[in-house]
Amino acid sequence: MRDWADVLEANGATPATVRRLVSQLRACEAAAIAFCRLLERWGRGDAVPATAGSRAAALRHAADRIETALAGLEAPLSAYLLELEPERTEGRSWYGGPGAGELVEWRPVLERAGVGACPNRVAAVYLELAVLVRALQGLDDAARLDAAPDRSSLWAGLFDLRDNWLPESAGSPQPDADADDTEALEHTVKEHARNTLVEWMLGNRCTFACSYCPSELHDGSLPWISADVILPFLDEVRRHYADALGRQVWIQYTGGEPTVHPDFPRILTAGNAAGF
Ligand code: SF4
After folding, report:
1. Is the CB of 210 under 6 A from ligand 1?
2. Which of 98-107, 113-122, 168-177, 231-240 has the lowest mean pLDDT?
3. How many CB atoms lie within 10 A of CB 271?
4. Are 73 and 193 members of one domain?
5. From the CB of 219, is ligand 1 less than 6 Å away?
6. Please, which residues bridge with residue 250 across strands?
7. What pLDDT, on a 0 to 100 scale, did the predictor assign at position 271?
8. Rounded Cα–Cα distance for residues 158 and 161 (Å)
């Protein structure tokens, strides 16, 4: 059955760019669904996991996953937008604004769950993620009905979503290869300013099913990111951060359980060879 990935593929210029965008968007979609479903369960009075402490841990865990997934989205999405080159960029998004069901008052829900997170922040994140999930579902429907948006609508929708999810990247879709603001951080130990940490979610298969972990984060519904994508990207990271900027690079793989990735030894070896 056709889905949103087919629409992106049909409009993409370079297979490698499409592959990267699709795999990162799938990671974002799974993490967004996990975050939203966790809150929605609490909204229905379903107190999972069983204790307030484990619910707070589950929310933190889901938020960390979405942060990691979104952080990895900017580069492939920017590259895709550049390559899309629509004739007209003033097209309209293929999806509409939030529905009433997405404008939820989360304060009483969080209080009932015993979770001390900022309700305004939770509401903002929930809304942005719900828009992401609904936008991809809209593309799914369009693909099934053979009514995919034209290139300018696709560009406009992806550009809007990019501004929603990655607010600091608002403006031109041109990725700025020289941008590097880590010098602005004050470190007690100056040497630590050289550190760059890359956190990468490789997939969502896991050999455990921890009670506080939403199923979307360990049920194996996502394919592993292929070593054919990972290895060239590690090379790019080395060239940009280590060679050009003189950084000490650390790579932190997450999942699911990243050590069950079928090519994990190869991926580790490549990272070690690159000096990470
Ligand atoms: S070990 Fe697996 S199931 Fe447990 S928290 Fe991590 S990803 Fe989730």
Report:
1. yes
2. 168-177
3. 20
4. no
5. no
6. 197
7. 94
8. 5
Question: With a 6 A CB cut-off, is 218 part of the ligand 1 pocket?
Answer: yes
Q: What is the mean pLDDT of residues 79-89?
A: 78
- The domain of 237 spans 182-273
Among all chains, which residue has been given the structure tokens 């997450």?
254
Between 167 and 116, the higher pLDDT residue: 116
192 and 96 together in one domain: no
CB 155, CB 89: distance < 8 Å: yes
Specify the pTM. 0.61
Q: Where are the alpha helices (DSSP H) in the chain?
A: 4-11, 15-43, 52-71, 74-84, 107-113, 119-144, 151-165, 227-237, 264-273
Question: Atom 8 (ligand 1): residue with closest C-alpha?
Answer: 213
| 250: three-class secondary structure by DSSP | strand
Could you identify the atom of ligand 1 that is nearest to the CA of residue 206?
Answer: 2
Say yes or no: CB of residue 238 within 6 Å of ligand 1: no
Rounded CA separation 173/79 (Å): 8
| Whole-number pLDDT of residue 57 | 86
3-class DSSP assignment, residue 48: coil
pLDDT digits (tens, 9 = 90+) for 236-247: 899 988 888 888
If you ran DSSP here, which 8-state letter would residue 146 be given?
T
Note the residue count of the chain: 276
Do 82 and 164 reside in the same domain of the chain? Answer: yes
